[in-house]
Design a protein that fits this description.
mainly alpha
Length: 122
């Protein structure tokens, strides 16, 4: 992973967390990511995963609540939120977070940290 692409990815992720959100914000994402890093580094879990799997865990944890609006999926559905309309499933937020993450990681994106990897490793 090139340093410049990694920095762009991290800043893009940071931008998609909202400071006004009292819980699902950048501090939460960074804290959860640090926790995952410590588990990988200091427990048997890290020895059970190869480097690609460890990277996948770290990226997943960092991006797990991207663009979180601060309310739950049930609220979004009951209020007919545009987010719920766009993701018509009971787990609205999980689909939205996934979509935001995959936008950052799509082929050719300046934030695609997996861009230099062989296709089978993505």
């Amino acid at each position: 992973i090139s340093e410049s692409v990694l920095v762009k990815f991290i800043f893009a992720v940071r931008h998609l967390y909202h400071d006004q959100n009292s819980f699902h914000n950048w501090k939460h994402a960074w804290s959860a990511t640090h926790c995952a890093f410590m588990i990988i580094r200091h427990t048997a879990a890290g020895r059970l995963m190869d480097a690609k799997m460890q990277l996948g865990v770290m990226v997943s944890v960092l991006a797990h609540d991207l663009d979180h609006p601060g309310v739950n999926s049930d609220f979004l559905i009951k209020s007919a939120s545009p987010i719920a309309i766009n993701y018509p499933t009971p787990n609205v937020l999980e689909h939205m977070h996934w979509d935001r993450a995959t936008e950052l990681l799509k082929d050719g994106a300046e934030t695609d940290i997996f861009g230099a990897m062989p296709p089978d490793d993505k």
